[in-house]
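During the first year of the project, the team set up a workflow for recording each protein of interest as an amino acid sequence followed immediately by a discrete structure-token representation. This format lets reviewers and collaborators read both layers of information side by side without switching files. As required by the reporting guidelines, we include two representative entries from the current panel. The first entry is reproduced here exactly as it appears in our internal archive.
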Amino acid sequence: MLTQTQVEGLFIERQRQVKYSNPRRARQLGTLIQMGGNLSSSPYIGGLLSIFAKRTVEVVSATYCRVSLLDEAGEVLTIRAEHAVRKLPWRPDIGERYSLPSLPKHRMAVEKQEIVIVRRDVPLVAARGEELRLLGEDIKSAALVPVVNGEGVLAILTIGEMRSWERSPFDSAKLQLLRSLAMPLSSTLMYARLLQRIVQAYEQFSLTYEQTLEAECQKAVARFALTIADEFAQPLTGASGFAQLLLKDTSPTEGMRYQSLLKILNSCEKMNAIVHNLRVLAD
């Protein structure tokens, strides 16, 4: 006779077998997703962008380079990396978020998907308010470079220059260099975004998969439970009926025989309760 605990143990074992029917594939997929998650993680991307910002400052010969990522809704810029060749009076913290509508020049770069030049000495293209503070009040000029791919703008490169326009202008050659630097960054950010989507999709799939497994396992458990119940029901009915029949012809004064029949009937009742539970589970 199986106890309720033993039956539950068999159910758990069955669930484990169903869930891990292909452990090698599960491990491989899990490793792949973990790697993708690491590659698209905030620390990894932040470190990569910091290296990129440093390299850009060196190549372009500017005061600073800042990388701000645009969210998929196209409404919020988040500063993810910055490198400057000299100490700036003020600089935003990594991770600070800015609403794009509050930054007119940045918004223009996003909407036009073209480089926007900001010059402090030219009122028509000068920055004001929060945007001026973000760019740096000591910055004489800046180039806002949209990092674009097929889905739109992924980020904004801000190249700031403390030197005068005459000493270090954003001429056509420098702008072309900035465009060429933005291209590989576009691919990198797109792959990171794609990896994030894959990881998120996998997590959602895993949840759905677990629910599906659970549902499938419940079906297997139900079939298993019904089999157990059917196997025990008939002999149990026979044993109980026979014990009741014997008990009618047995006097309580017969001591051990009478007590043995009562124990049998008690066991039959407990077993009938288990069979009932199994059949309920199978419904």
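The second entry, processed by the same pipeline in the following quarter, appears below.
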Amino acid sequence: MTGCASVQDNYRLSANESIHGFNQLPRVTGEYVFLVPAMKIHVVPNHSYFPEGHDRFGVWGCAGDNEIWVHGAIVDGKIILEPASLGHEFWHIIENNNSGVWNPDEWMEGK
């Protein structure tokens, strides 16, 4: 499961970056960084499987403490999920490990 965004996509996102927390992403520095994160990924049928406090309708994923929960299903023996949700929650894991903030989306909602 992989996902990517082009430099053009990043510039497009910059218009709303403060609303969506993209201003917390590091800027391109030209340095090569190699990460080997260890985490658990929970693929669940609906939001009721999310941790307490995040188990409400309309939440498509959450992350914290090196664990990710995303909506998905098993179809013909294959795990199907939305890659954007997985990528977004992966970002939360990296952000959490760097700053200690658990789920910045929800923290940003009240700002």
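For the second entry, the following points were noted during internal review. The first strand starts at residue 40 and ends at 44. Residues 1-22 have pLDDT under 50 and may be disordered. Both points are flagged for discussion at the upcoming steering committee meeting.
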